[in-house]
Amino acid sequence: MTDALRTTGLGVRYRRTWALRDCSLAVPPGRVAALLGPNGAGKTTLLHAVVGLLAPDAGTISVAGQVAFMAQDKPLYDAFTVAETLAFGRRLNPTWDDAHAVARLEGLGVPLDRRVSGLSGGQRAQVALTVALARRPSLLVLDEPLANLDPLARHDVMRALMTAVAEQPLTVLLSSHVVADLRDTCDWLIVINGGRVQVSGDIDDLLAGHLVLTGPAGAGTPPAGSRVVEASRTGTRTRLLVRGTSVTDPRWSARPPDLEELVMAYLRSPDAAALPAPAEVRA
Amino acid sequence: MIEFHLDRGSGVSTYLQLVHQVKQALRLGTLRPGDRLPTAREVVEALTINPNTVLKAYRELEREGLVTGRPGLGTFVQRSIGGARLADHAVLHRDLEEWVGRAHAAGLDRDDMEALFATALAGRLREGIA
Amino acid sequence: MIWTTWRQHRAQILVTGGLLAALGLLLLGSAVEARLHISGHAPPGCPGTAAACWDLARALGDRYDTVYSIFGWLPIVAPALIGAFWGAPLLGREYERGTYRLAWTQSVSVRRWLTVKLAVLGTLVVAAGLLTSLMISLWRPVFRQDVFGNVGVFNMVGVAPAAWWLYAFTAGTAAGALLRRTLPAMALVVAVVSVTTFTLFGLSEHYAEPVRTVLSGTTVPPDPDSRLVSGAWVDPSGRELAAPPAGVCLRPPDAGRSSRNQEAHERCLFGKGYRYALYHHPPSRFWRFQWTEAALLTAGSLVLVGVTVHRTLRRKG
């Protein structure tokens, strides 16, 4: 099955510096992929390149089918009414499903004759999401969709996304710099740090392939067969996050990491990487 | 129809929780062979989880032969769990309720009762009787 | 895409239409009233170029001073407003508000989006310019016959306004594409339009080789609607002088607005055999100059459209 999104050696230059350097990643179809990384790491640059707003300076991007985008801050035309915003989408997209879009917004209680400037933050997000979803894309890309939303609106947006993935064949790629929102909803992880891809893979596989080891402070070398991602020492204990599936050394107690621990460890160790070989990427 | 709930802090992966809840329902008799499980969309609208998780849980249940998927119609319960259904054991159920009443009167709280029961169960299992 | 263009730019289209309608009413009102005044007070054959009509022209001028003042500013202000309110926001606002991230990620390519917008709005701008020139062409002859000699009027009739407004519009869109913010783009386009205006006003006398007419008895051109370039006194031997001859006739300075002493000096020179060589463009060159200016401005517009398209399609951060 062809990937919904694949980039190979992607590089984007901004003036003198490379905002993205040698980025290779793939997202299988039907996945909900989380793009995580600190601010300024290149998340927005990567997403803008994927949707065609930026031309790559190196490497290639290939997307299967139509891509829809919800940019950061969910831009809409403030002077338009909600109905006019839908008309805008209808006229600019031949695959537009207007009945579905109207039903969705009416079901959410968003008044069609209200100006966009008069909507609440949560309503704006729903309208922007509707505009992206109504054209039935194969890939939906969202740049920080949960930022600046109250908890109720955040939940509504995630629920809308999950429902859309359940209803139609859709791959989702969303960026965030808050990990906690994403554990139950995302099943593919991409970590980007300093313009480079550090992690790319299935979340369950990644968590199963790493361990958090706790051992005494003077434990010396870490167990054989594991690669240390991050090491930290607190008083009498050493804590390691390693890449490996089992550890027989009795000095170390092992448990699988949670998503936040995994992401944090990689972000704190910019030189570490967990990238699958091309053949390992599977649905 | 079964209503799923999610314990996000439990550390147990979501799809395992769903599998467990279906099995519990089968044991208790609230789900019977021929009943339809909620669609992935219905579960997702209620719980806001990834639909692939639901599909993974249903695939696991299908692998164990407990449910079967009929394309276009839904996922249906194939068979129940255990020889006899719990609902048939009214006597045991009443004895247990009586025991809970006595334990409560003796001053045990819920955690005490659960610990006591777990110890007794483990002890009997070790003896190979249960 | 056409509906989208209309809806996004509805306000500016309606306001411009409203202003043109208001201008039309103002011109119509003043023309009708002037006609009534003329039919009551004017000598036969006026308004016209004859000397007998000058008093009438001055009376009309005093009467319609306000209208003339508005009119006087139009050749500069109208293109500047078009550039600032039609051109600069086209791309400036999309970048500023971030809505380009919505507009350019739909199924319509950026190239098509930009092409349709430029075509629709450019056509409307040209149409508005032609309408304005039509209104002015009908209005001005009620008062004066000076469509060619007066550079300001010249730029408000014929195809000049349409060419100027198209140029200003494309300059505005280019400014918006380069600066990516509306207010700085507005400032830039006003500057560009002003510089171009003064440049072309000064350049226009070179659109053709001026005609040399030698006059004896007057320094006034035969056709008052001629575009004057320069003049020089010719001495009796036929040599052109760089400056009026000194020491030949008495030349006391004039007081106030009177030109009596100046006229006496000229009569004296003519009497001594001097003649006046006038370099000018006759009014018959009106359309030639119109098309020349329009060609220059249209060429500029095409370059600016090229800049706009190139910059926008480059897809750089």
From TrEMBL, chain A:
A matching Pfam family: ABC_tran
Keyword Disulfide bond attached: no
Protein's UniProt keywords contain ATP-binding: yes
Keywords: ATP-binding, Nucleotide-binding, Transport
Highest taxon of the lineage: Bacteria
InterPro entries given in the database record: AAA+_ATPase (IPR003593), ABC_transporter-like_ATP-bd (IPR003439), ABC_Transporter_VariousFunc (IPR051782), P-loop_NTPase (IPR027417)
GO MF term set: ATP binding
Segments forming domain ABC transporter: 5-219
Xref: PROSITE patterns: ABC_TRANSPORTER_2 (PS50893)
PANTHER family tied to this protein: ABC TRANSPORTER ATP-BINDING PROTEIN ALBC-RELATED
Annotated protein name in UniProt: ABC transporter ATP-binding protein
Species the sequence originates in: Streptosporangium longisporum
Organism phylogeny: Bacteria, Bacillati, Actinomycetota, Actinomycetes, Streptosporangiales
TrEMBL record, chain B:
Keyword list, A-Z: DNA-binding, Transcription, Transcription regulation
Pfam families (UniProt xref): GntR (PF00392)
InterPro entries given in the database record: Tscrpt_reg_HTH_GntR (IPR000524), WH-like_DNA-bd_sf (IPR036388), WH_DNA-bd_sf (IPR036390)
Superkingdom, taxonomy of origin: Bacteria
Residue ranges constituting the HTH gntR-type domain according to the UniProt record: 12-80
Listed name of the protein: GntR family transcriptional regulator
Organism annotation: Streptosporangium longisporum
UniProtKB/TrEMBL annotation, chain C:
Keywords: Membrane, Transmembrane, Transmembrane helix
Transmembrane segments: 70-92, 113-139, 151-170, 182-203, 294-313
Top-rank lineage group of the source organism: Bacteria
Name of this protein: ABC transporter permease
Organism field: Streptosporangium longisporum
